[in-house]
Amino acid sequence: MAPTAIVGLVSPAGDSSKAAGSDVNGAGGAGQAWSDLAPYYEQARSREDSLDRLVEWPAQREVLGDVTGRSVLDLGCGNGAKLAQLARDGASAAVGIDVSGNFVSAARPGLELVQGDVNELASIPVLAGRRFDRILFLQSFGYATDPVRTLQTARAMLTDDGFIVLTRTQPIRYALERAEQNGTSLGEEYFSTKSYTYRTAWNEQIALTKRTYTISDLLNVFGAAGLWVETASEPQLSEEARRRHPHKQEWMNKYLGILIFKLRALPERPAD
Asked: Which of 143, 226, 252, 272 is the most exposed place for a label (fewest CB within 10 A)?
C-alpha cells in the first residue's frame, strides 16, 4: 500500500509541481501549507521557462483530448486557470475544487470554482449527484490522506466512458534528492519508507514532511480503487524548448519530470 500522504518538492530550477500534503500536521496542516504556497506556485507557473508551461500542461492537455460538450472536474485546481482554458475549449461544465480558494476572478459560463478539500469530496455540496467525463488530479493527489478512498470517490463520479487524468512527480527524482541530501544511494532511498522534513524554496518559513513512494505503490493504489491504467506517459521538453531553455533540459536530465496516468474504471464485479 502506498503512503497515506505525499508532499511534492519545489525545485530551485522552478519546477511547477505543487506542494501537496504534510505528514506531520495531517490534512489540515497540508491545506494550510498549500494555501500559503499557492500564490508562489502561480507566480512560478507564469514564468516563460516554467516546466508546467513548457512540458506538463501541454502533455496533460493532449491526454484530455477534445473536451467539447464534456464535463470536467479538476480536484486541486489551483487558481482555476487551466480549468478556465478547458471552458474556453468547449467544456459544457467545468468545476474546480481547491483548498486554497485563491481563484482567478474572470467568470465564464459553466465555470465553477469552489473552495474544498479533496479528502471530503462526498461532503462538497456542488458535487452531490453529479458525474463527469474528465476528472483531474494534476499534481494534487498528494493531498489525499487516504489515497484509495479518494480515488474510489472520484471513480464513482465518472460517467460510463469517462476517465481520470492523474499526474505525479517522478519518484526517482525524490530518491535522488534524498540520496544527495543523506549521502546514500539511489536504491536505498527509492525503497526507503522513511519520511523527511525540508523547507521549500518557495517559502523557507514553511517546513514540509514528505513520505516516500514507488511506482508500484501508485499502481497498487489505482488497482485497490478499482481503476486500471489505459496509458502512461513521461513528457519531455520539445526540441525547440531545449534550445531556448538549456537549463531546463539540464534539470530534466537529472530529475526526469512527471508521470501522467490515464485511468479508467474497472468493470463492476457481478454479485455472488
From this structure: 272
Q: How big is the chain by its Cα radius of gyration, in Å?
A: 18
Whole-prediction pTM value?
0.83
155-190 pLDDT, tens per residue? Answer: 999 999 999 999 998 999 889 988 998 999 999 999
Per-residue cell: 229: 491504467
* Torsion on CA atoms 251, 252, 253, 257, rounded to nearest 10: 130
Map out the domains of the chain with their CATH numbers.
26-265 (3.40.50.150)
pLDDT at 145 (0 to 100): 85
What long-range pairs does 100-107 form, CB within 8 A, spacing at least 24? 100/31, 100/34, 100/35, 100/38, 101/35, 102/35, 102/38, 102/39, 102/42, 102/78, 103/77, 103/79, 104/79, 104/80
How is residue 159 written as a grid cell? 460517467
More confident residue, 105 or 30: 105
Give the total residue count for the chain: 272
pLDDT at 38 over 70: no
Q: Concatenated DSSP letters for 194-217?
A: --EEEE-SS-TT-EEEE----HHH
User: Are residues 15 and 173 in contact, defined by beta-carbon separation less than 8 angstroms?
Assistant: no
Phi, psi (deg, nearest 5) at residue 169: -65, 140
